[in-house]
User: Fold these one by one.
Assistant:
Number 1:
Amino acid sequence: MTTSTQRGATIIGWGTALPDLIVTNADFEARLDTTDEWISERTGIHERRHGGTTAGLAVEAGRNALNMAGLTGDDIDFILLATTTPDYQIPSTASQVQEELGINGGACDVNAACSGFVYGLVQAHGLIAMGLKRILLIGSETLARLTDQDDRNTAILFGNGAGAVVLEAVEGEGQLVSFDLGSDGTARKLLDAPIGGYMNMVGKEVFRKAVTVMVDSAKISMASANLTTDDIALVVPHQANIRIIETACSKLGMPMDRVAMVLHRTGNTSSASIPLALVDALENGRVQRDDNVLLVGFGAGMSWASAVIRWTGHLPEGNK
Ligand code: UT7
């Protein structure tokens, strides 16, 4: 989809949160039938964070984003919280975050698994096009809770964390140039977690499908924006496995020096992974004004999502 709206949005603040507890590959090596070498080579992950709650991490990331934008909860019309690991089944995790940040207005969770942040980003732009002024969008997860820590197939992959952005309405075109959101419900059994149970995953099949949907979705978003790989300054992929990212980028002809990466230190944080990688890139001066930034993710469902953003939003001092 190419966006068509009289009222767009730009990102005016961002924030992240990671719990303090670092779990290294060596920690797994000490108690599971695995090695640091296997995990590093097959996944690219060296450490991930455990602990915290989904609401607690979301509040911290959201507060950091509000502070950066010079706003308080009062200035926000709506909070959208992407998560697959809500703290309660009822109510939404967004409700608790809303109370703690003093936000008046709507609040709800979005569950599109690891595609959730990009789904939320597009939904936020839709709400702004309909008249809302400012939205707090957060991806927050406590996946260590949903993962059997004795299962070497999954325990090594997932971690906890949160990333948030504040979106503000602008007259005319905003930053979102194009997007593609999709889902294939027939593949939903490849990665699931029953209520009260742990995550089950057919890793190899998820890997194979992930590469296909990331490449296809990225191509759709770039084509809708009339762009090619050469026009993209930075790709921010879902941080699941370095080999998935490398294979998808190689099929897209995208050099790895134009790819945002935090996977080695966060593991897979599902809907928090794209905002964590985006913020890391922004803070390290990897985005300049008017750069085209491609966000692309996939996840359980099986869902996928991509979006091209032309960066007209805030930038840290020094990289204008
Ligand atoms: O957000 C989406 C979430 N999910 C994903 O992104 C998962 C996508 N899939 C993957 O990332 C990869 O498939 C994995 C990292 C999960 C597995 O890597 P793989 O290269 O596909 O390995 P595999 O499943 O083919 O397993 C190869 C071997 C097996 O042993 P045998 O049958 O060859 O004897 C596994 O039992 O590696 C074994 N294995 C391990 N060995 C050491 C599986 N996990 C481990 C481990 N340490 N942690």
Number 2:
Amino acid sequence: MPNKRLVTRRQALWLSLAGLTGIGAIAIAKAGYQSYQIRSLDNLKRNFKVIKYTPLKKRAAAKGLIYGAAAVKDVLSSDTAFANRFAQECGILVPNGELKWSALRPTPNRFDFTSGDWLVKFARTHGMLFRGHTLVWHESLPRWFKEVINRQNAEKFFVEHIATVTKHYAGQIHSWDVVNEAIEPKHKRSDGLRNTPWLKFLGLDYIELAFRVAAQADPKALMVYNETGLEYDTPRDEARRTAVLKLLERLKSRGTPLHAFGIQSHLLGSETNFNPKKLRKFLADVASLDLKILVTELDVTDKDLPKDPKIRDRIVASAYEDYLSVVLDEKAVIAVLTWGLSDRDTWLSQYAPRRDGAPVRPLPFDSNLQPKLAWNAMARAFDKAPKR
Ligand code: XIL
């Protein structure tokens, strides 16, 4: 329960912000959130100036970092303006869904690499690196999965899938998200593992098995464990951080070919439980396991933020800057990827739409492919980052 006095103080701040910006009191009452108010006030004054237009990939590269984004083949192949913008800004490309089971496995016996292959070629043509996402996930499974996979055949399907896909792209992948989102403390296991079909059929060593099969097929790629919901100072995220560290430690102590950790970084513009110290410590703990770190899916949900795009963009940009300034301080961090490049194509339009129906604005470019304050925030964070 929020402290009453604090809420009152925050409400007062919000009222003064509302006065400053012309947001009506109705919006305040409706929003029902106190969380973004203090940050909003700060955001109105924050300076997001950037000296010169140098693309994010170049600013990142100047610090030994890689910047890139997720993209969808159908968009990249049909929208030249978008493809040009993408090539200009990004040093690495990750497929949004083309390498997930649902896309690669039309039937139990067939692999379809058509879209994935198109994306690899696009990356190569434009001098970009390419990420693999993802070999093992409890979501985006094909329709036939439930009927076909059982305890008897699960290991065969599991190993065959990982081996076939990693061999197909061997030598062309910067890093593979071998296992995605295997932790869920809500499932109440003492190891914090998520109840997935693979855990049920193969037991807890399915994670290690996945890494071994993948690393054998593609010894050049960095093998990554990728996880969500770790960024904030909430009991939920804290439990997830603890479980993730335990898992990473276990894998390393068993000699698993695990090289890096992916922190997804789907941020919430309205969340104020951001604790730089705790986040910084978590990243240091991961790095101390001799792991590189990648920010793999950065975006900022604007679901509960005020409607005015000017204010919304400032809050979103502040979240980018606050987060990246902590994360990039850790030298084990080698890459930052946003989950999409422009607001025109973001999964959040579907997964976290606004109640007022206004188009969401979570990414560095607007839907006309023009840079927003979030772009400035990223540029500034890269410019300030220590060199790797
Ligand atoms: C999302 C895609 O963006 C959607 O288009 C798709 O329908 C569902 O998956 N965490 C992940 C990503 O690891 O694979 C998810 O991508 C977003 C959350």
